[in-house]
Specification:
This is Probable transposase. There is one protein chain. By secondary structure, this protein is α+β, with helices and mostly antiparallel strands. It has two domains: 151 residues, no CATH class; 180 residues, Nucleotidyltransferase, domain 5 (2-Layer Sandwich). 43% of the residues lie in helices and 25% in strands. It contains ten helices and 14 strands. A hairpin with a 5-residue loop joins strand 8 and strand 9. Helix 6 packs across helix 9.
Length: 348
């Protein structure tokens, strides 16, 4: 438990770059080559059934060796995570040993006159940002172009603050209600997110995909999928943020989450809820809760969710639930998801 509390968190600082015309042209070329060869490696892996054994000398293009090594790592990690995937957004990255930060510049190797040379590019950094990057353990730096601007995304590690909370917050995740939280000692309850609004978003994009599919517009479907994923990711970020703030404000030092491994395989959902379940981003929401909780020193524990929505919190009798309201023979009555969250909070 102690080890989990002192584990560092990775955050990202975005820094605006102001390259010269020549530097911008080289960044454009580098990012294009980076993504092209990363895609080539993934397609080779898909064809062979495993990621190829390659080094920088196998990447036949005029980019710095350190960038070649980064693109190999990037392609390998994405293939391991997603399998067959296609990178569309141009980007290029350097590891933490191959770039330096000064108050007004970021310096890293790019190609100049046919040679790899460490080049200083003007950066818009506040004094606080420079101090943060100077004092933190830094990770990789990734550069992308957003509109007309070049942005450097620099990863850095921070140690979480220590929480003084002593209570436990139980979280019940669901489809109709994305998350319900109950504090173990007081029973204080909060509902997070809007499941009906999420279903409206899903139905909207499903309808649009069907219409585009009939017109054979596959690229438009991919763009639509990306947009939907970004919307749901933003929703999950906000839900996770509200949950962690609620835990902090109610003096909770621990959050109990359901261990939902294999839920798609074991769920008995039928009909219209089946598609919703398989699109449900519960794993992403759980990851966001864990990450944001760790930032402020709150411990997250996974518990067995079996029968948590059927067990009476008062007499521990098990009752089948047919609607949103839970009723027990002992007289206890309450919202089904709140019952689940309370039992999760009380699970040791």
């Amino acid at each position: 438990m102690k080890k989990e509390q002192t584990q560092s968190c990775v955050k990202v600082l975005k820094v605006k770059l102001k390259p010269t015309k020549e530097q911008a042209a080289e960044l454009t070329r580098l990012s294009k080559e980076y993504i092209y060869h990363a895609n080539q490696l993934v397609q080779k892996a898909v064809s062979d059934g495993r990621f190829p054994t390659v080094t920088s000398r196998h990447i036949e293009t005029s980019i710095p060796s350190v960038v070649k090594n980064e693109l190999i790592r990037y392609a390998k990690s994405k293939y391991a995570e997603h399998g067959n995937c296609v990178f569309k957004k141009r980007t290029v990255s350097w590891n933490n040993q191959n770039y330096t930060v000064t108050p007004n510049h970021l310096a890293f190797p790019i190609m100049q006159k046919g040679k790899s040379m460490k080049t200083a590019i003007k950066a818009v950094l506040t004094s606080d940002q420079f101090d943060l990057l100077s004092q933190s353990k830094r990770g990789a730096m990734r550069i992308t172009k957003k509109g007309y601007h070049w942005i450097a995304q620099i990863a850095y590690h921070v140690l979480p603050s220590e929480t003084t909370g002593t209570d436990i917050l139980g979280i019940d995740l669901g489809i109709l209600c994305p998350a319900v939280g109950v504090v173990a000692s007081s029973g204080q309850t909060a509902f997070f997110g809007n499941g009906r609004a999420n279903k409206v978003i899903r139905r909207k994009y499903k309808k649009l995909r069907r219409e585009l599919g009939q017109k054979k517009k596959l690229n438009a479907i991919r763009t639509l999928n990306d947009k939907e994923a970004r919307i749901m990711q933003d929703i999950n970020h906000k839900i996770a943020r509200h949950i962690v703030r609620f835990a902090r404000d109610t003096n909770c030092g621990t959050i109990h989450l359901e261990n939902l491994s294999g839920i798609r395989r074991t769920s008995r959902q039928r009909g219209k809820h089946t598609a919703i379940l398989h699109n449900w981003t519960f794993a992403q929401l759980t990851d966001f809760i864990e990450y944001k909780a760790r930032e402020i020193g709150i411990v997250v524990k996974k518990v067995n969710p079996e029968y948590t929505s059927q067990t009476c919190p008062t007499c521990k009798a098990r009752n089948k639930v047919t609607d949103r309201m839970y009723q027990c023979g002992c007289g206890y009555r309450g919202h089904r998801d709140r019952v689940g969250a309370l039992n999760i909070a009380q699970t040791t």
